[in-house]
Write a structure and sequence with these properties.
10 helices, four-stranded antiparallel sheet, binds ligand FHN
């Protein structure tokens, strides 16, 4: 598809998108606009990502220096937004770069940590809304190589480490919001420093587009491009300026947050798990481990390993991926409570990974919960109340029943379409057969005396 057609298509469909591109999570209805590929090529491009199921999101930037505190005050909200929430003047915020010297950053160690967690890809903030590039851009000196004592390019180091360890690497890039460069957008449109005033097209042409080009040119294979916070300024024409860059990485997977009507490859619900997933679309829930993406020294509200693992299983049971965030410190260290939790998930995956990687969604549908008859969300829709007893993931001929709550002596299940030929616990290397009674679509499995895992014991039912 040539560029003229792409832009024309974007223009026709752009109005549908207006006003809803921010953190877009609604399945879009636009026709495929972005890639000149057959459905088979699309399937092939998405294969590794669908197999992966679990990835590491990394929000790391100069905001890890203030770490949530400005002018002696704790600034409310997510850490990477401190410049905006604290209304820190551009020049003053830029001074933090001089203190940013993450000498403990070790790309190999980060990749190894992700691998020990069972994560199959990493997506790191190359530039967040604060406009600070975490790579050695030639666009200007506002980057980790030129503006800090560190004088290294962590994205180059991470790219090399990912290559070495066989890890897929993706880049997050804030294409609209940029609170440093003149003309970059600010959510809500209100500047707090006149240094931010400028022309958005000038910003796109001199900063965002050249930097995305650098990212897709200088770092070897880039598996994911993760745009964020498309604002109303991202018209179809402007979005169309980014699209030819994707040809630099023909296999790249792009999310749905460029704006301008660009549908992308993946839906990206944030901090939530959509009750029924996104049938017909690839999707990925991104989520924080505590309450911030970028490091905040005093945010210790870490989710439990149990919650995180249940989320991973819940997401897999609905056919999605889990992109779980870590927020490294200004020294370059992933906080230990985050490492502990993700490694515990990795330990579980070492035993039970067959039920997650490359798995399909549940064969049963509504086991995940029900709509609350009374409670409504802020749009007036009934709230989904998840049931946390069990989940199901599938592979051809196999059902994986994730027992999130140990039911006791027997597991009872209705709605079984096939006949169960064998049942065993996935954690049991011997695959000792469990007694199964089936009558029509009802199955009863006699479980072992004790659950093999405290958080999620996986019962395998082979069926024909
Ligand atoms: O504003 C950002 C936020 O800082 C963070 O990067 C998240 C991650 O999905 N995205 C935006 C909010 O939707």
């Amino acid at each position: 598809m040539n560029r003229g057609w792409i832009i024309c298509g974007l223009a026709l469909t752009g109005w549908l998108w207006a006003g809803c591109a921010w953190g877009q999570t609604t399945p879009s209805t636009q026709p495929e606009l972005q890639r000149n590929e057959t459905p088979e090529q699309h399937e092939a491009r998405m294969t590794w990502w669908r197999q992966a199921r679990f990835g590491m999101f990394i929000h790391w930037g100069v905001y890890s220096v203030p770490a949530g505190t400005y002018d002696g005050k704790k600034i409310a909200g997510i850490g990477e937004w401190i410049m905006n929430r604290g209304k820190i003047p551009v020049a003053e915020y830029a001074e933090y770069a001089k203190q940013f010297n993450p000498t403990k950053f070790d790309a190999d160690q980060w990749v190894e940590t992700a691998q020990e967690a069972g994560m199959k890809y990493m997506v790191i903030t190359a530039k967040h809304h604060d406009g600070f590039a975490m790579f050695h851009t030639k666009v200007d000196g506002y980057n980790i190589y030129d503006a800090t004592p560190f004088k290294r390019d962590p994205l180059a180091e991470l790219a090399a480490a990912c290559q070495k360890h066989g890890m897929k690497l993706g880049f997050y890039y804030s294409q609209c919001q940029d609170w440093h460069h003149p003309g970059g957008d600010v959510k809500g449109g209100v500047h707090w420093d006149k240094a931010q005033d400028g022309d958005f097209d000038e910003y796109l042409n001199s900063v965002a587009i050249p930097q995305v080009k650098e990212l897709l040119t200088n770092y070897g294979p880039v598996s994911v491009l993760w745009f964020d916070t498309a604002t109303g300024l991202m018209t179809p024409q402007r979005a169309g300026e980014f699209l030819p860059l994707l040809d630099l990485q023909p296999q790249i997977i792009v999310n749905n947050r460029l704006g301008g009507g660009f549908k992308g490859d993946t839906e990206t619900p944030e901090q939530r798990i959509p009750p029924q997933g996104f049938p017909g679309r690839d999707w990925e829930t991104c989520m924080t481990i505590n309450d911030t993406w970028g490091y905040k020294s005093y945010d210790t509200n870490f989710k439990s390993t149990e919650t995180l693992l249940h989320n991973l299983v819940d997401i897999a049971s609905k056919g999605g991926n889990y992109l779980l965030n870590v927020g490294p410190t200004s020294e370059g260290i992933i906080p230990q409570p985050e490492v502990d939790r993700i490694k515990a998930i990795g330990d579980w995956l070492k035993i039970n990974g067959e039920s997650i990687y490359g798995s399909g969604p549940t064969a049963f549908g509504p086991e995940a919960g029900s709509l609350d008859p009374v409670k409504k969300d802020r749009r007036g829709r009934p709230v989904w109340v998840a049931a946390w007893d069990w989940r199901c993931t599938t592979k051809p001929g196999k059902l994986f029943i994730h027992l999130l709550k140990w039911p006791g002596e027997k597991f009872e299940l209705s709605g079984m379409k096939g006949s169960v030929t064998k049942a065993y616990m996935l954690a049991d290397a011997q695959q000792a057969e469990l007694a199964v009674q089936q009558s029509g679509d009802h199955v009863s499995v006699t479980l072992p005396a004790a659950p093999p895992d405290k958080i999620d014991s996986v019962l395998v039912m082979e069926e024909k």
